[in-house]
């Protein structure tokens, strides 16, 4: 795998391989010494043109646990403010020795441009581009669902028959897009629940069912309910009901939680708008996987960097750190 740019074109076999390698990485992290020498001598650059907490620190932790050197670049405070282009910024980082570039950018398609323009030869990982995709978020979500469903017996399994309801601001959500494509590739059934003003125009071409009533969708007893952040910063006021109205109709709270089966998990990619799309009772409940998703993200990102940078090593070599 040269790059990870999206889940729409990610082959089922590659997706399952990332999830299975992430299992190995999780096992390695449960040992006394969590660090593997697998990527010693490699350099990973986190190239972030938008704010991030989870994704940036997760990629940093993942690279460091594989013994790679890490350079963190944030556009804020850099020469981007003086007008430096994406091309010049990326080439500058490659001149310093980047083997992989993890890029977050407000422009949909920026990671693909980096990967295909010939500007740099490093592997590119999309860490979230505009409203397009966030593939490692979807992979860590799939890993979390699989782990909750199959536990220690997860390796090699897909998500056939698993029912996932994705709720909220689908229009602006790269997380929703990446999840829809990956969950479909892995055999899950996806239902989107969203206000009519926050559904993409091309949704009829997506492998999903669409509902506008959250209570009807929850009555179908899904296996996972994935709440999305309301992206007020990307939104025109005309597209959004009042916050109160939104919470009443599409928010997940303790009352709705009580109606769900005991083994339905509640997911959120973060950051959460507590009290808007999800109440604190729901976010902090035993069925919430919010922090589990964060922890699993490190394993999934270790697997992704391994796939990009470690070449054709066997599992034995991986464990030895060859
Ligand atoms: N889920 C996610 O992308 O979070 P951050 O914006 O904090 O990276």
Could you explain the architecture of this structure?
- The chain is α/β, with parallel strands linked by helices.
- The chain folds into two domains: 12-134 and 294-320, 3-Layer(aba) Sandwich (Rossmann fold), CATH 3.40.50; 135-290, Aspartate/ornithine carbamoyltransferase (Rossmann fold, 3-Layer(aba) Sandwich).
- It is 39% helix and 14% strand.
- The protein has twelve helices and nine strands.
- The protein has helices at residues 12-29, 54-65, 86-96, 110-116, 135-150, 174-185, 214-219, 243-250, 254-259, 280-283, 290-309, 315-320; strands at residues 43-48, 69-74, 100-105, 123-129, 163-167, 189-193, 209-211, 224-227, 265-267.
- The strands form two sheets. It has a five-stranded parallel sheet with strand order 7-6-5-8-9.
- Helix 1 (12-29) packs across helix 11 (290-309), helix 5 crosses helix 6 and helix 5 crosses helix 11 (290-309).
- It is globular, with a radius of gyration of 19 Å.
- The two termini are 19 Å apart.
- Bound molecules: phosphoric acid mono(formamide)ester (CP).
- Phosphoric acid mono(formamide)ester binds at residues 52-55, 128, 134, 137, 269-271.
Would you spell out the secondary-structure blueprint of this structure?
Layout: H1 12-29, E1 43-48, H2 54-65, E2 69-74, H3 86-96, E3 100-105, H4 110-116, E4 123-129, H5 135-150, E5 163-167, H6 174-185, E6 189-193, E7 209-211, H7 214-219, E8 224-227, H8 243-250, H9 254-259, E9 265-267, H10 280-283, H11 290-309, H12 315-320
Parallel strand pairs: 1-2, 1-3, 3-4, 5-6, 5-8, 6-7, 8-9
The structure holds phosphoric acid mono(formamide)ester.
The site of phosphoric acid mono(formamide)ester has 10 residues, from helix 2.
């Amino acid at each position: 795998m040269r790059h990870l740019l999206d889940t729409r074109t990610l082959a089922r076999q590659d997706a399952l391989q990332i999830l299975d390698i992430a299992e190995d990485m999780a096992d390695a992290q449960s040992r006394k010494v969590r660090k593997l020498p697998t990527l010693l001598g490699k350099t990973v650059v986190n190239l972030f043109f938008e704010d991030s907490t989870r994704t940036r620190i997760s990629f940093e932790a993942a690279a460091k646990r594989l013994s790679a050197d890490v350079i963190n670049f944030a556009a804020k405070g850099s020469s981007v403010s003086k007008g430096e282009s994406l091309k010049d910024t990326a080439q500058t980082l490659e001149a310093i020795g980047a083997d992989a570039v993890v890029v977050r950018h407000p422009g949909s398609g920026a990671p693909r441009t980096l990967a295909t323009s010939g500007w740099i030869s490093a592997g590119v990982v999309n860490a979230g581009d505009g409203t397009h995709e966030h593939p490692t978020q979807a992979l860590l979500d799939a890993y979390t669902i699989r782990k909750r469903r199959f536990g220690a017996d997860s390796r090699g399994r897909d998500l056939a028959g698993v029912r996932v309801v994705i709720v909220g601001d689908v229009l602006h959500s790269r997380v929703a897009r990446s999840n829809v494509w990956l969950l479909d590739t892995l055999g899950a059934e996806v239902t989107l629940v969203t206000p009519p003003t926050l559904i993409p125009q091309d949704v009829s071409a997506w492998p999903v069912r669409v509902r506008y009533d959250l209570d009807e969708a929850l009555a179908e007893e899904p296996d996972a309910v994935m709440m999305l952040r309301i992206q007020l910063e990307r939104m025109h006021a005309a597209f959004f009901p009042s916050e109160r109205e939104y919470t009443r109709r599409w928010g997940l709270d303790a009352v709705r939680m009580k109606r769900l089966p005991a083994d339905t998990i509640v997911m959120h990619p973060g950051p959460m708008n507590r009290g808007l799309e999800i109440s604190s009772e729901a976010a902090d409940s035993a069925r919430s996987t919010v922090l589990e998703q964060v922890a699993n993200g490190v394993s999934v990102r270790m697997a992704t960097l391994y796939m990009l940078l470690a070449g054709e090593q066997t599992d034995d070599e991986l464990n030895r750190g060859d």
